[in-house]
Design goal:
Layout (H helix, E strand, L loop, with lengths): L9 H6 L3 H12 L5 H14 L5 E7 L5 H14 L4 E7 L25 E7 L11 H11 L3 E5 L16 E6 L5 H8 L7 E4 L7 H14 L11 E3 L8 H45 L3 H8 L5 H8 L8
Parallel strand pairs: 1-4, 1-5, 2-3, 2-4, 5-6, 6-7
Helix pairs in contact: 2-3, 2-5, 3-5
InterPro entries: AAA+_ATPase, GTPase/Isobutyryl-CoA_mutase, GTPase_ArgK, P-loop_NTPase
Pfam family, one: MeaB
Family: Belongs to the SIMIBI class G3E GTPase family. ArgK/MeaB subfamily.
């Protein structure tokens, strides 16, 4: 990744793989700046022209499962394989500023001097699914920049954290032994969207039992001879153990998807991005609604349905 003159345009610097241009492009896209559509077009054009799509691996799981430690270990392992790595860590948002308050980059400072690694934190901005509305667009910018692998780590929010399956090519669910995570995964339905199951901190007591419970749960679900069972991998991220097996499991899922399956996932992501942006704009419109309209709803002079139709542009004036 090279630096070019600041006099160059942002798209030109981006195409020249200037990491400062990448950082600025992400900021512009995340904030919804006026030039964001042009930046996105440039990034997606670059992605279309690329000989190979980056691999997007999503990591999800409950707080304390060691996701950030696992991401850091994966960075090191992938770099040893000669892969460039981009990381998006979606953090909880401050209820006051809307900014990220966890800062997963703190855990990954050991990679800051590596030109083949770029780590960025994004605020969830209250998104219940663990991903902010702009995450998909920022992901597109990073893909267009040309990373080999992009690791998407979501905020740990338990049962709500299902959006990642609509965004990542491969969804990795990180669990811990003897913590009830396996049972919670069954109850929450997260098992249904996971492509790879990781029992992290496998040096703790109960790891083998958790693996057995996961396998038993897989057998209980409807299946036939064509069913793909998510591989179950044990890792000890703090000691860099099990990482090769984890990447092998991701590759097994990629083989299972085939080109048609991967294309379908990418189309699903586009649908999810569109839905998220529509939701975000609808929420902005609702938050900016004229207080007089709220008073009329409260007084029974009009209905919330009529106001909603008005805000969505389906009707002119509220009666």
């Amino acid at each position: 990744m090279t630096d070019t003159s600041d006099a160059d345009s942002l798209p030109d610097r981006f195409r020249a793989r200037d990491v400062r241009a990448l950082a600025r492009a992400i900021t512009r896209v995340e904030s919804g700046a006026g030039d964001a559509p042009a930046i996105l077009r440039a990034a997606r054009t670059a992605l279309t022209a690329a000989p190979q799509l980056p691999t997007v691996i999503g990591l999800t799981g409950s707080p304390g499962s060691g996701k950030s430690t696992l991401v850091s270990a994966l960075i090191q392992h992938l770099r040893a394989l000669g892969k460039t790595v981009g990381v998006l860590a979606v953090d909880p948002s401050s209820p006051f500023s809307g900014g990220a308050i966890l800062g997963d980059r703190i855990r990954m400072l050991g990679h800051h001097a590596d030109a083949g690694v770029y780590v960025r934190s994004l605020a969830s901005r209250g998104a219940l699914g663990g991903l902010s509305a702009r995450t998909m667009q920022v992901l597109s910018v990073m893909e267009g920049f040309g990373f080999d692998v992009i690791l998407l780590e979501t905020v740990g929010v338990g049962q709500s954290e299902l959006d990642i399956a609509a965004v990542a090519d491969h969804t990795v669910l990180v669990l811990t032994p003897a913590g009830g995570d396996g049972v919670q995964a069954f109850k929450a339905g997260i098992m249904e969207v996971a492509d790879v199951l990781v029992v992290n901190k496998a040096d703790l007591p109960g790891a083998e039992r958790t693996v057995r419970e996961l396998r038993a749960a897989q057998m209980l679900a409807p299946h036939d001879e064509h069913t793909f069972f998510p591989p179950i991998v044990q890792t000890v991220a703090s000691r860099n153990e099990g990482l090769a097996a984890l990447l092998d499991a991701v590759h097994a899922h990629r083989t299972h998807l085939g080109d048609a399956g991967l294309t379908a996932r990418r189309l699903g992501r586009a649908r999810f991005e569109l839905r998220s942006l529509i939701w975000m704009r609808a929420m902005n419109a609702a938050n900016a609604v004229d207080p007089l309209l709220l008073e009329r709803i409260s007084a029974g002079e009009t209905s919330a349905d009529e106001v909603a139709e008005h805000l969505l542009g389906r009707h002119g004036q509220v009666r």
